[in-house]
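Why predict the complex rather than its parts? Because the way molecules touch one another can change local conformation, and only a joint prediction can capture that. The input here totals 1496 residues.
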Amino acid sequence: MARIRLGMVGGGNDAFIGAVHRIASRIDDRFELVAGALSSTPEKSRASGEALNLPRVYDDFKQMAIREARLKNGIEAVSIVTPNHVHYAAAREFLKRGIHVICDKPLTSTLADAKRLVKAAEASDALFILTHNYTGYPMIRQARAMIEAGDIGNVRVVQAEYPQDWLTVEQDFKQAEWRTDPARSGAGGSTGDIGTHAFNLACFVTGLEPDSLAADLDAFVAGRQVDDNAHVMLRFKGGAKGMLWSSQVAPGNENALKIRVYGDKGGLEWAQEDPNYLWFTPFGQPKQLITRNGAGAGDAAARLSRVPPGHPEGYLEGFANIYSEAAEAITARREGKEPGPDVVYPTVQDGLRGVQFVDACVRSSARNAAWVSL
Amino acid sequence: MARIRLGMVGGGNDAFIGAVHRIASRIDDRFELVAGALSSTPEKSRASGEALNLPRVYDDFKQMAIREARLKNGIEAVSIVTPNHVHYAAAREFLKRGIHVICDKPLTSTLADAKRLVKAAEASDALFILTHNYTGYPMIRQARAMIEAGDIGNVRVVQAEYPQDWLTVEQDFKQAEWRTDPARSGAGGSTGDIGTHAFNLACFVTGLEPDSLAADLDAFVAGRQVDDNAHVMLRFKGGAKGMLWSSQVAPGNENALKIRVYGDKGGLEWAQEDPNYLWFTPFGQPKQLITRNGAGAGDAAARLSRVPPGHPEGYLEGFANIYSEAAEAITARREGKEPGPDVVYPTVQDGLRGVQFVDACVRSSARNAAWVSL
Amino acid sequence: MARIRLGMVGGGNDAFIGAVHRIASRIDDRFELVAGALSSTPEKSRASGEALNLPRVYDDFKQMAIREARLKNGIEAVSIVTPNHVHYAAAREFLKRGIHVICDKPLTSTLADAKRLVKAAEASDALFILTHNYTGYPMIRQARAMIEAGDIGNVRVVQAEYPQDWLTVEQDFKQAEWRTDPARSGAGGSTGDIGTHAFNLACFVTGLEPDSLAADLDAFVAGRQVDDNAHVMLRFKGGAKGMLWSSQVAPGNENALKIRVYGDKGGLEWAQEDPNYLWFTPFGQPKQLITRNGAGAGDAAARLSRVPPGHPEGYLEGFANIYSEAAEAITARREGKEPGPDVVYPTVQDGLRGVQFVDACVRSSARNAAWVSL
Amino acid sequence: MARIRLGMVGGGNDAFIGAVHRIASRIDDRFELVAGALSSTPEKSRASGEALNLPRVYDDFKQMAIREARLKNGIEAVSIVTPNHVHYAAAREFLKRGIHVICDKPLTSTLADAKRLVKAAEASDALFILTHNYTGYPMIRQARAMIEAGDIGNVRVVQAEYPQDWLTVEQDFKQAEWRTDPARSGAGGSTGDIGTHAFNLACFVTGLEPDSLAADLDAFVAGRQVDDNAHVMLRFKGGAKGMLWSSQVAPGNENALKIRVYGDKGGLEWAQEDPNYLWFTPFGQPKQLITRNGAGAGDAAARLSRVPPGHPEGYLEGFANIYSEAAEAITARREGKEPGPDVVYPTVQDGLRGVQFVDACVRSSARNAAWVSL
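Output of the joint prediction:
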């Protein structure tokens, strides 16, 4: 099976997430990066392309979309790894030319853009994959499969949290800069950058539909224009309740995404920083430590694992799993087939839901944490 | 220094918390239990008193208060360990006779009783000590001292949680029965039984004054009349924010009280089930594991510790520390002195604040989680 | 049931282990401390006795043994908590007068004394209880019961370790001083002080008989006369093998006694610093976290527990369990009965085995870690 | 910089370690796999090569070495991932033709072969890199750098262990089969397969030279011809002491390689299953949790990290770091330069030392755990 020809928008030198996407695309050898428009500045784009030995480098994403679409062996898919406010404009160009889009999250910086992007994706024959990468962790798949199988019964309570500490004080380096600029990141700060992950995971793992939320947002660092701490109460359709905490000002938390789900028959707990473990307590029995590929872990985790239990896989492998799922879907599409029933990846609808989450948080907080529908 | 003569109200055979109080009072050998009205039924009271070799056993607390007050060597203090709805009536009898009261929490089952009890305590020469026992843990004292010393800077975020799982399904044994009966426990279920602990700890550790809360309460088990899960957002005076989660339906959580506090200079994390540890992260430095009596722990923890680091102390020792603080205060009072400045224990005001917390939770939840002042 | 009248030898002001024994004897209210010869210096003995409100204080243990034996309500049992080299002489005086002895470990400072003490104990009607306190931890009882029940199959491998760090540098305070003086502690340093605990636990938990050992001892701190680090290989009768590491120069280890046992059907792991947990892995199934009094824990742990799961018990409660077992045995003896079959405590034979362990370590090490029979 | 052209010997379909090497070689995009002799059976070799889209597939390694050496753009390096007994013969063919060798561990199945391979490597202009992959973990580099910098003072005690449980019962699948066949794996079982890793790490991290060992080996599973449990005492030149435990029959241990090093100023502890953490205790200060790329971690870890702290890297990234170091060395060689001083990888001498370790263990155990020089 030939590798999928991949392009990239954004991700020039010293961009964090672009390098992550490239590694993720390589790990399972299903993609070959052959083209890029790696920066908003043509010179930087060229320099970055050269450093990566890219066969084809473009000045901007539109040029790239047009030309690649005309090539016989042009790119089949593109990874969009720019700041949030560029996602929509870039994705549109590729979608309308039938090039599959793998897009970083959050989907867009505004709700209006998100809705437009949904339409663009629905109007296209191409696939749209959103890299809510944490859904690629094997033990997240394991948790989802267990909940679907009824192992913890009906879900009652979902506790999701995503604390970090890197914005505890004012930062002026590149990663911090655009992420705290509402024009580029969107109206949400921690809510958009990391809260969306926690929210997405809460829905993904439980299969629940969110109903409404009440949010109390703060910007604790003087002069910050977007939230750096968010306290959110969640209600799900069917009666389950949740809490969500996202923070970038919680010293001692590097990237401490955690999700805990409690049903009437048991509980599950997972932490991103130790991702190879899933704690499972069937009510009335001892707590079990299920490990990736170990005893107690099933097919949902195994199909996204590469090495035996006790050999930890991490963030990059979880990210690579999104690319592997994308590869499954894209190669099935090549052959006019549907991918297997196990293939799951975050979609443009999940992306819309994330942007709606941010929008709802901001609106609720502005109304003194009133309940806002999702 | 002669031991303090102690009586007990409640705590008859097979009462959980009464036995805990008795052990706690014995550990440091400052008290001697000499009298009791151990049950609401005189027969049970007598039987329990005999089993404990108690010199003096009474039919009820009023009889005990009257007679002990007349004895030359009657009790100097009484422990009240009945269900919540009896606290006020019992405490009043002893307070008005100048007998110090050590009372289990929550203070009372109703806000009206709580206010009356505050008046009774204020009108009395006797001391009133509330056994919010978790404030007796050495590493909680350590955390409080560090925050007071500015080690984490200005507090911004407080995450308190107290999940348990024992009420995941309907239970019919004694402990469960009265705790889920609003007539005896009060209008709050998990909020009253354990949420008050988490709330008290949040205030005790940070020194912050609570301002208001928004609460979303549920009774997930069919037919349950009080909340078994509470999601609460907190606002403190001065701008700090908090979340509080109490639950008795979270499988895999035995008694998982946890508090995390984040300031602009660092963070602290403590978990009741592993109480000899305190995680401290000065922002920009590695996380430190401070241990009870170990390197990095100071006087506030040491004065309430009995054994060297690495020799774990637990729940009973933490509880005993409340009794030790009470003993300090009572013996100082004997001599007409003030106890030393380090002596700290939860007061009737803390108790009132706890009952106000429950009341606010219930009222907020009834109003769709509207903000309610504290 | 009247409390057991208890005396104490050693344990004067600022002695660590004496205070521990006193708390341990009080926790379950089965003993009453009424007499003491608390120091080798009569003046100190008197001062310490006064501080403790002891009814009867003696100049030395012999005087105490003689006089108490004559009293109508003299002590029924004595706790011996002196430095090791005094154990034999003190114990003998009480044993020969029919007073039960509760003695700290190691049994004696020399093998010759240990053998004499065995004879003295065997010749006496009185009971001899050795406070290998770690055998009192509920989850150690749980582990023992599980192994006895075959839950991990035939034991193959036992990994015991007991690292500390307090002697990493030269120390000159009292605790360090006598423990590093061979005349008072015996020929073993870490082997005697803590290695005996690890060795005792390995035997107690598995039920295996030790066969032989090979030991490589070091005194890393200049001028130290006894070992501060011991590497030991163990062979048990029947073919199981073990390793034992004791160290007092391992920075970062406060009191990190740990035991791991592996059989052909499963494994068990326990750590003293987190004593309420027992890890159990049935081969081919997920690892289980069994908690004290929690799901999966059985009667052997429950009978030595006081509070519900999630309410941690610690070192003092484990120590108190040895006193409770002693109380069971002593009160049975009062009534001319045998204690129940569950009552277990370390005996003089266990003590002899510990001293033999130290002796074997020292001899093996002197012979370049040759195998020495046990 | 053009990618390094890589070949592979062994690693056909369903070989575990071959797939690992391929992923490791891809992660940082420094290698391109272009040729292979993937199996000892030509048919399987061809089938595996096709499955991998390899441009050039050979019947056997000799044919591959001969032909690739003649090609203008033949392979520059070869990965040897066969069972141990083939390593020497395969490596020799490439070394003598100037093709760099990246070889799995242990170096060879016999000491004689190991010595021959050392000679072959020394006689060659080509580089020899042994994939003791655990030395590639960033926090292992961090530990090594800290010890070299004197952060824990003079090393006294090294505790290395590597327990697994997969051979607790007899297994008949491929991985188990050759690893328990002395003709293919060598005379050591657990000692060769995993003990060599622990031994290598002990030396790598501390910089100590091993002096001698005493080993007690067992084959607990009936009929097993090589050890499945090894207890080893170590002596290092200069006086440090160590213990090493390797086991494949320890239920509950998946791949629990762990190393702890104690010096006169501090201690370090690292566990492979949670590889992003390094515990550091400066004596007399609180224990610190240093995280990969986090506060407290330095350049040695950072240069082998790809993502920020809190984003876990795992086994494959650690393995990839060996490939990255190899790439650094190979590209420097291309240009006639020396690689930078930070570039470190396990050499043929480390491989020899590993085989000597196995040989010494087997000989010591045969002589009742007598000391054997290393």
